[in-house]
Amino acid sequence: MAVIRTAIPNKGRLAPDASELLRAIGLRIPDANDRKLLVDSGKGRYQVLFASPWDIPRYVESGAADVGITGLDILEEAGNGVERLLPLNFGFCKLCLAAPEAATVLSSKEIPGGATIATQFPNLVRSYFRRLGTDVRIVEVRGAAELTPNIGAADFVADLVETGSTLRMNHLRILDVILESRAVLVASPASLEEKGSEIRELVSAIESVVEAESRRYLMANVPVDRLPQVRGFLPGITAPTIMNLIGRQDMVAMHVVVKEDEVNGVIALLKDAGATGILVVPIERMVV
């Protein structure tokens, strides 16, 4: 059986969640203190390569890694020839264009030609201003772009934002969102041809974890005469599972999967319907 090599970030905002995702599908992932950059897992069926997030698209495109986890922002900037397989539920951020608070500019359309933009995403920023029809000068930086207006190195910045607090601390305000980003799973086109079934197996496992993260398994004892009412607001994946309770003719056990953000509302409706013994538990994996 072919060995599948998966590249994941060795540092940065994506690294912890990427490691936890692979652990959730049963792969052995060393902790952050382990300095190994290539580890075997899954009884020799898998290898995990720890690499810079910026290098992962290159490794996957070349076939040095079969699949990889990196940010959509990095993929869009790199423009690599990889197959995007699955969006993941972490690494959410935005590439934002920001101006100093004291600047008179109120929107990106007001930025004059010749202005300097500091960013570590020159290709994305250049494309953005090309669409606006504005000729700007890009100042490429590898970190702390938010400092550049304060030291006279640039007029504006385009930087990744999660909450916006770093921009505010440096007296910057957001003018526009250039790109909304998140972690994504990608694959090598060559590997998909050579190891398609093995890669699909891995993707299916990851997808089952991603799907489960936003769902909860809910169990409750429901009065039989209230089942029509309950079924109205608990469709589940197909329909709630109903089971008899030993020694009870008036109550049944109901099991159903609900969305995490709907759990509190569902519990309130169940209580109004006379349900008891309500339990909510997390789901490790779910195949739909």
Helix/strand class = alpha/beta
Radius of gyration: 25 Å
Report low-confidence residues grouped into runs of 5 or more: none
The order of strands across the largest sheet is: 2-3-1-4-11-5
The CATH homology group name of the largest domain: Periplasmic binding protein-like II
Order of helices and strands: EHEEHEHEEEHEEHEEHHEHEEHE
* Total helical elements: 9
User: How many structural domains in the coordinates?
Assistant: 3
Give the termini separation.
Answer: 26 Å
Oligomer: single chain
Strand content: 25-35%
Query: What is the strand tally?
Result: 15
Proper CATH architecture of the largest domain: 3-Layer(aba) Sandwich
- The average pLDDT score comes to 90
Summarize the structure.
By secondary structure, the protein is an alpha/beta fold. It has helices at residues 15-24, 56-62, 72-78, 122-132, 165-169, 189-194, 196-213, 227-233, 263-272; strands at residues 4-9, 38-41, 46-51, 67-71, 83-87, 93-100, 116-119, 137-140, 156-161, 172-181, 183-187, 215-223, 241-244, 251-259, 276-282.
